[in-house]
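Recap slide: Transcriptional repressor NrdR, sequence and predicted structure.
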Amino acid sequence: MHCPFCRHADSRVVDSRTSDDGASIRRRRQCPACQRRFTTIETASLSVVKRSGVTEPFSRDKVVSGVRKACQGRPVSSDDLALLAQRVEEALRASGSAEIDAYEIGLAILGPLRELDEVAYLRFASVYQAFDSLDDFESAITSLRAEHAEQAGRDSRADVEEPDGS
């Protein structure tokens, strides 16, 4: 790391801390030549490989804008969308790959969006998964209903108290 003051080719790390969101590392450095200190912020780059083969940096804003269209008219706040984008980015970073296919980003969006708002999920899935007919919608809705029934069954079993055996 070059010193920003004297352009010396080396520096020493004095302190390292993870940022509040955990996405970057803040390093306090000192130049051995001029003894001045400076701060660097390091992040792991995450690139998106588009269908055309073009690579561009990952953008949470693009995730939010894409999902915002599906959430139009739904009770979903900007904070909800920002949190969804953060969850998507964290999931993608957890994969350990520096380059992510654009299709994988769409898949990573579907799960959190389903939890956030099912109507928005159906809208997004219909475009993303290229629904061609009513059968595609029926299949997605049947899957959501089965999930609801399964969750309701788990909830009712949790409400039943265990006998104490006395």
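The mean pLDDT is 87.
The two ends are 71 Å apart (CA to CA).
(End of recap.)
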